[in-house]
Design brief:
Elements (H helix, E strand, L loop, with lengths): L11 E7 L3 H14 L9 H4 L15 H4 L8 E6 L6 H8 L4 H5 L2 H5 L27 H18 L2 E8 L16 H9 L7 H11 L4 E3 L9 H10 L2 E4 L6 H14 L3 E11 L1 H7 L2 H12 L1 H6 L5 H4 L3 E8 L8 E9 L5 E9 L2 H21 L4 E2 L22 H15 L12
Parallel strand pairs: 1-2, 1-3, 3-4, 4-5, 5-10, 6-7
Antiparallel strand pairs: 6-8, 8-9
Helix pairs in contact: 1-4, 1-16, 7-8, 7-9, 8-10, 9-10
């Protein structure tokens, strides 16, 4: 096979994160710790996973980072915007994800990263008060200010390339409207302060206009809009979204394929979460929870294909609840009751209590999306990067067929994409790792 013409990863890569709270500060701290040799980047596929090439008999299993030309961790520069945190060290301390000992050796590096003033509108996150925000009422001016921020950051930090990964809060639920139908309509909406344009959409627009790949780590409408897809294809810039696949949904995409593989029936799946931190506070508002609920509920139908297996999955009772509980902090608890049935219809139950650390699971996803989106851009890719669905709760599809949610199919798609780009044959049979 012929390999893709991928430009080398020379120079510095700036990683910009709208939102520099728990997830972004944990991501940055982990990369800095890895660079100093303090802790390995556990959870990062790009850094720690191997990829098999050829047949098993060939015994070729390089690390992914040694197989494809990814940016080196030492070449990453961090920046972003936040409406609350004065610097990343204070953000990390406020979030309480990391212990003081883990912060002490990198505290100077974290304190030196100062978020830029954010584009913020409390209409979209009613439980937060933005204090470090751009004093601009015009959405067009806000977009222009972000474009200038991006240009200034690139110049001041001597970056060769940039990527942007949304790490901000979940915005209130929204359906696409006329203003999202085309780039022209969206730009007219910016000039007219259309109320249907949210801050995350302004960030996505500014990124693409700056030729910066954009990945959406929350369930907001941003990449999955006709205008943003049109703009990404017109400018030749990759996009990916949406919503980091971390705790409970990660478990669903692990377990549901197993039930289907064994042709075990599913009657109901009740999921509840308790979490604190800023994310929990934001999701305590019904309009914001609705965005997350839609993202979480879409997983099972796609994996289980009830239209093909009505006897097994034709009448599933799927319930998702999220409860804000401040004592839990960032240590989210995802509790699932799963009612399955087997031979002769006899019922069985599975209980899963996942005491997870949300930002610890999300941080390596931010790293991988940043590195792989940069790779895609250097490979000449544009539009929706469906091969990165592995990382996302509600992945975008580049076709009318809809997204794939099965984690193991997603893994094969990700690795096969890398194989094909590097001129290797895809693996079409089951593989381990």
């Amino acid at each position: 096979m012929n390999s893709k013409d991928i430009k080398p990863a020379n120079g510095k890569l700036g990683v910009l994160t709208p939102g520099m709270g728990a997830v972004a500060s944990t991501f940055i701290a982990g990369v800095l710790a890895a660079r100093k040799g303090l802790k390995p980047p556990i959870g990062s596929i790009s850094q720690m996973a191997h990829i098999r090439l050829g047949t098993k008999a060939d015994d070729r299993n390089p690390l992914i980072r040694e197989f494809v030309p990814l940016a080196d961790l030492g070449d990453l520069v961090f920046g972003g915007w936040d409406p609350i945190s004065p610097n990343v060290l204070e953000a990390a301390r406020t979030a309480g994800v990391l212990d003081g000992d883990d912060l002490s050796e990198i505290s100077g590096d974290l304190e030196s990263i100062i978020p830029m003033e954010a584009v913020f509108d409390q209409k979209w996150v009613s439980r937060l008060d933005g204090v470090r925000v751009k004093n601009l009422d015009s959405k067009w001016d806000q977009a222009e200010a972000l474009i200038q921020d991006i240009a200034n950051f690139k110049e001041e930090n001597e970056c060769d390339r940039l990527v942007m990964v949304w790490c901000g809060s979940t915005e209130a639920f929204q359906e696409p409207s006329d203003v999202h139908a085309s780039v022209a309509a969206f730009e007219e909406g910016l000039r007219n302060n259309d109320p249907n344009i949210s801050p995350s959409q302004i960030y996505a627009y500014a990124a693409l206009q700056s030729d910066v790949p954009f990945a959406n780590g929350a369930p907001n409408l941003s990449c999955d809009l006709d205008c943003i897809v049109e703009l990404s294809e017109a400018r030749g810039v990759p996009i990916a979204g949406k919503d980091f696949k971390t705790g409970q949904t990660l478990m669903k995409t692990l377990l549901a394929p197993g039930f289907k593989a064994r042709m075990l029936g599913l009657e109901g799946w009740y999921s509840t979460n308790i979490l604190g931190n800023r994310d929990g506070e934001v999701l305590d508002a019904p309009e914001n929870f609705k965005s997350k609920e839609v993202s979480k509920l879409g997983v099972l139908d796609t994996i289980l294909q009830p239209e093909l297996y009505p006897d097994l999955y034709g009448d599933i009772h799927h319930v998702v609840r999220i409860n804000y509980y401040p004592p839990r902090g960032d240590n989210k608890e995802g509790w699932d009751n799963i009612d399955i049935f087997g031979w002769l219809g006899y019922p069985m139950q599975i209980k899963v209590d996942f005491l997870c650390r949300d930002s610890i699971l999300a941080a390596p996803i931010v790293l991988d999306l940043a590195l792989f989106m940069d790779l895609a851009h250097r490979a000449g890719e544009s539009g929706v990067q469906e091969w990165l669905s592995f990382y996302l709760k509600a992945p975008q599809s580049s076709t009318d067929n809809g997204p794939e949610h099965d984690l193991f199919i997603q893994q094969t798609k990700l690795k096969n994409t890398l194989r094909e780009w590097m001129g290797e044959e895809p693996v079409t049979h089951s593989e381990a790792g």
